Amino acid sequence: MKKKILMFILAGAALLMVGCGRKNPLDPSNPVSLTVWHYYNGTQQVAFNDLVREFNETVGKETGIYVQSYGQGSVSDLEVAVRESLAGKVGAKEMPDIFSSYADTAYEVEQAGALANLSDYLTKDELKKYITSYINEGCIASDGSLRIFPVAKSTEIMMINKTDWEAFSNATGASLESLATIEGVAETAKSYYEWTDSATPDIPNDGKAFYGRDAMANYFLIGMRQLGTEIFQADGGQVVLNVPRESVRRLWDNYYVPIVKGYFGKYGSFRSDDVKTGDLLAYTGSTTSAMYFPGKVELDDRSYEIDYIVMGAPVFEGGENYAVQQGAGMVVSKSDELHEYASVEFLKWFTQAENNLRFGGAAGYMPVLEEANSVEMLDKVIEDYEVAVAKKTYDCLTYAFENMADVHFYTNKSFKNGSGARKVLEYNLSDKAQADRKLVEAALAGGATLEEACAPYLTEEAFDAWYTEFCNALKEAAGI
User: How far apart (Å, rounded) are the C-alpha atoms in residues 34 and 103?
Assistant: First the structure.
């Protein structure tokens, strides 16, 4: 306890001795009140609110800052609230001092001239403490200055139902090593479908899907990057689209084709839901999804407990090891020096290694300071602060920490109409695959073989028709 109190005192002193070249406008006898809007829920919201409360009772009290946090529901709900506030709609709440934001939304607000320049409140030495790519992601202003403060990040991993995987592996010789590549996942999924289909020889074509993925936009952005192409090359808010046919075909072959054939699947809201219902064995999703990975499979007539495996997200054969860098940051509304200054001081406190790991450990996020991204630091924080970190979350975070050096993290730059273009990546191919799979299932029910049922959807003509439509949809959404 004495150690924690000393840390609070030192942190407060650090805030008072600011090195950004600006005079400290804070007055402890006349505290400034800040509002924060976020989209956290459940465990994440509890962890965030606990830290806000701690800040208010310690460093905030010492320096004259009082923070009030308000959940706005989902990410979409938050974005709507921000846009309505920015537009001054009747009944809209006043813009908060700080709010959670992904880069595309932040770019819109920045274009409206409503975001504070965070570079004015941070020294070069302070910025160097943060992971460079996280800072670069937030430099969305036309002059390259910082507008998005990184507070928590995530990447993608693969999670597998270990219990049922072992039964499949023991019977067929399937290996985890084959799941390192996207092509290997597709081949394994084919084998799993055939193995489960053979279990009921009197019922044809009832094999089960092996794999699914959350966030189809990431599949496109990261998959293409692994193959040497950036779909969106943005510069100064303008964008050039890069969708080479050969690369897009590889994405089609390793998502659309397995979906149509029933080797991959998408059933519930998230793929962790599909593992819980026994419809999938593995999925690629965010590190934050680990807390939702089920502890048992629940079928109509029975349930059974399962264990899990954490692996890296698969990479295209021959491709570079790129992985997604994602997670909303915090932006500060443009107002006056006192509120902007106080907002940045709170965010600097929140992203101190110990504080950030306490939040990330509970929420499944990776911290944003270089020094905080280590298993040793996480273990120390868990011990010093008695943080309860779920084992699945701990395993995902430690996997990410231990393998960060081998991965290139990537996120595309912001540009006008970026949100709309991303939605095309998220839904265009996925929706088509789901719709065509239903047509295949109808053909199977009518007595067709799997090969016969799938044939109309797997021709060169079918791909070319979709590819043309996809490119046109992207151009229209991006405003090109």
Answer: 22
- Residue 8: its pLDDT value, please? 46
Q: What is the DSSP pairing of strand 322-324 with strand 408-410? A: parallel
Task: State how far the Cα of 465 lies from the Cα of 356, in Å rounded to an integer.
Answer: 48
Listed as ranges, residues in the chain with pLDDT below 50 are 1-19
Sequence-separated (6 or more) residues with CB below 8 Å from residue 188:
174, 178, 179, 210, 211
Nearest Cα to Cα of residue 77 among 38, 36, 35: 38
- Tell me the per-residue pLDDT of 243-292, one tens digit each, with 9 for 90 and over: 999 999 999 999 999 999 999 999 999 999 999 999 999 999 999 999 99
Q: Give the span between the Cα atoms of 462 and 468, in whole angstroms.
A: 10
Question: Strands across the sheet with 156-161, in order?
Answer: 211-213, 282-286, 156-161, 308-312
Please check whether residue 427 is in contact with residue 469, taking contact to mean a CB–CB distance below 8 angstroms. Answer: no
3 state SS of 344: helix
Q: How many helices (H) and strands (E) does the chain have?
A: 20, 15
Strand partners of residue 120: none
Distances (CA, A) of 29 to 24, 25, 64, 358, 422: 14, 12, 7, 30, 47
Write down the pLDDT at residue 238: 84
Q: How far apart are CA 468 and CA 319, in angstroms?
A: 25
Q: What three-state secondary structure class fits 326? A: strand
Residue type, 430: S
Cα–Cα dist 353/100, whole Å: 19
pLDDT at 290: 92
Smallest Cα–Cα separation from 342: which of 37, 98, 151, 58?
98
Q: What is the DSSP code (8-state) at residue 211?
A: E
Q: Is 212 left (phi over 0), alpha (psi -120 to 50) or beta?
A: beta
What do you get for the CA distance between the two ends of the chain, in Å?
59
Task: Provide the token pair at 266.
Answer: 């998408």
Q: Indicate the residue type of 437.
A: R
